[in-house]
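Homework help board

Subject: predicted structure for assignment chain

Our instructor gave us this sequence and asked us to write out the predicted structure in token form, then describe one feature. I got the tokens but I'm not sure how to describe them. Can anyone check?
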Amino acid sequence: GGLAGKQVFLIMNSSVQETSLSLESENEIGDIGGLVGRIDVSLDNIVNLNGAFVKNISLNGSLPKQNVGGLIGSIQSDEDLGQTNSIANSIANSFVETDISSKNEVNLGGLIGHYSILSAYISITSSYFKGNIFSSETDDEVSCYGGFIGLAENNTEVQIEKSYQKGSIQTEAGLSVGGFVGQSTGLVYIAESFQKGSIQTKS
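My token output:
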């Protein structure tokens, strides 16, 4: 990640600009984010990101089984954090202005590539992603691409308010593509938000 590779829970008024991020790994697994690559959440440590800004960086997902996000590559936990959707991880007043590309099977989002936490929802407010998302992988039936979140799983609830996404999303293949969320296995609430830009996919 532009600030850290792993395990940062509170980020306020931080920026990353004019840099290039890619990852090479022997086991072909890894997470890339404009700020943080991966965050493992627990009851004692939840994500609170406020006032982040990422601009004009090169984010390239080149490995299979990879998660790529404009802010955070992956937010996840192996723990059940309690009563369903009683704990909030939050992103507020945060902005990404960059293009993101992939040439392999990845989960890719303008803000978060992959979110998977049982019983903890993600709240995105007063934030935006302005940029283009492009994947050149043609033999792909697993990837998810979204303007904000690529893949949200584990029946996680997603809340998006007063936010927007501007830019095109173009893939040569893939499983799911969405203006805000590529694929979600839980509820998605969207209020006072908009998406502007073309979405093109081939299957």
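Reply (TA_rk): Your tokens look well-formed. For the description, you could write something like this. Residues 1-11, 18-28 have pLDDT under 50 and may be disordered. That's the kind of observation they're looking for.
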